[in-house]
Design a protein that fits this description.
single chain, globular
Length: 99
């Protein structure tokens, strides 16, 4: 399983929490959830791109957003059968041309 596949599985398994973190800005001020989520997010970005490569970190952040945003905007849809599309979109963000 690739890292992107693992993240998709995690996001889909915990979809309501991912949606909550994306929608409810007050969740970012709650002690507890963000104390655990922020380091995991950083670790995922660091695994997707070198920490000293700002453009790579930007692409990694965009890739994670590409995985999370559809959960929110397509809230009523079952995205489980469409994991490959989610992964492909994130992969495209990771491999976007550098400026």
């Amino acid at each position: 399983m690739s890292l992107l596949e693992g993240i998709v599985e995690l996001y889909l398994d915990h979809r309501t929490v991912v949606e909550w973190l994306l929608v409810d800005i007050s969740a970012h001020n709650e002690p507890g959830p963000m104390d655990r989520v922020a380091p995991m997010d950083q670790r995922c970005r660091d695994l997707l791109a070198p920490t000293d490569d700002l453009q790579g970190q930007i692409r990694a952040s965009a890739a994670l957003g590409a995985l999370g945003r559809p959960l929110l905007t397509l809230r009523e849809q079952d995205l489980t059968p469409h994991k490959r599309a989610l992964i492909g979109t994130a992969y495209a963000a990771l491999h976007a041309p550098q400026s």
